[in-house]
Amino acid sequence: MKALILAGGFGTHLMPLTVTVPRALVEFANKPIILYQIEALKGVGVSEVVLAINYKQEVILEFLKEHEKKLGIKITCSQETKPLGTAGSLALAKDKLIDGTGEPFFVLNSDVISEYPLMEMIEFHKGHGGQASIMVTEVIDPSKYGVVVIREATGMVQEFAEKPSTFSRNKINAGIYLLNPSILDQIELKATSIEKEVFPRIAEDKKLFAMSLPGFWMDIGQPRDYIAGQRLYLQFLQQNSSAKLATGPKIVGNVLIDESAVIEDGSLIGPNVVIGPDCKIESGVSLSFCTLLRGVHIKKDAFICSSIMGWNSSVGRGARLQNMTILGEKAKVCDEVFSNGAVLQPHEEMKSSIF
Ligand code: GDD
């Protein structure tokens, strides 16, 4: 069985992290986002994953070479010279996806995180006999997603509308698909969208079916959603493998700490915090709802809430960072500085407060 991961785009919303690292390789809970997906695909018997990309191909391939061996799965690339959209990129990868067996293939948006119930999806797909299956989930505000209207008894999709201006339902496309190869005959090799042009058409033909996704789900392509997704994932760990989470007098709620991180006494960590490898946290520091990627140094008495600290960045003594402050790689916040949502480019230094 094969799979394709839609990993194109510049990851603009996760800037400045994506200035140095492609979005699919940015760590989420101390592991590159794309590895969660590749591991889940491998788990249901997928033998080859095609990455549809148009940006920083060499970096991604270099990184995945070692994992190809470790995971025992073939990883290839289909590179667009210009973005072909979510359907055109499938047309470009057609030869890689068709293996003559007629088996369906998975397609995943690269920026969604969930429990990936892919085996259930295979069963669901076999059961309905249509051409395509999509997973759907419920959100409070569907405006930035594909909204799906379903016939509840069968799961048949009656209507698929990408980011409609008005909507009466809150079931949305979760970005995880299982498609019959015949769908590739209906997609032209040009920039085109699966959500706007392909799914509405198949729904009209009554061949598109939706399965409700059990468990948590989040599109983590934007900083606020990344932190919200982290909260859901840590909660999932708490319920399913709590030994992975940190415990102790300085820990509050769900916290994940790489074992190489050094945390001095007298700091307060949590809730919803992830601390990456080689980080150093000095005494008196308070961290909540935030992520520290590899090699971050937080000096004495700093306070960080709802923020993301990029690789090898540093935060000065007594600094206060909040409201989605994002530090690019090796960015530096000086002592006593206050940041209310500042975004620092890689290597940038913040010497005075931004309110
Ligand atoms: N290869 C390739 N080429 N990939 C692309 C391209 C392209 O030209 N354009 C987008 N992608 C990839 C992105 O990297 C992402 O993984 C996925 O396709 C979806 O594209 P986004 O642009 O991030 O879409 P979105 O987040 O606004 O909406 C999508 O995801 C929602 C769920 O999070 C849609 O699929 C919605 O219907 C869905 O609800």
UniProtKB/TrEMBL annotation:
Pathway: Nucleotide-sugar biosynthesis; GDP-alpha-D-mannose biosynthesis; GDP-alpha-D-mannose from alpha-D-mannose 1-phosphate (GTP route): step 1/1
InterPro entries according to UniProt: GMPPB_C, GMPPB_N, Mannose-1P_guanyltransferase, NTP_transferase_dom, Nucleotide-diphossugar_trans
GO molecular function, one term: GTP binding
Enzyme class: transferase
Coiled-coil regions listed: none
Enzyme Commission code(s) on record: 2.7.7.13
Domain named Mannose-1-phosphate guanyltransferase C-terminal: residues: 251-354
Pfam families xrefs: GMPPB_C, NTP_transferase
Nucleotidyl transferase domain mapped to chain residues: 2-233
Highest taxon above the source species: Eukaryota
GO biological process, one term: GDP-mannose biosynthetic process
Keyword list, A-Z: GTP-binding, Nucleotide-binding, Nucleotidyltransferase, Transferase
Keyword Ligase: no
Family the entry assigns: Belongs to the transferase hexapeptide repeat family.
The protein's name in its UniProt record: mannose-1-phosphate guanylyltransferase
Provenance organism: Jatropha curcas
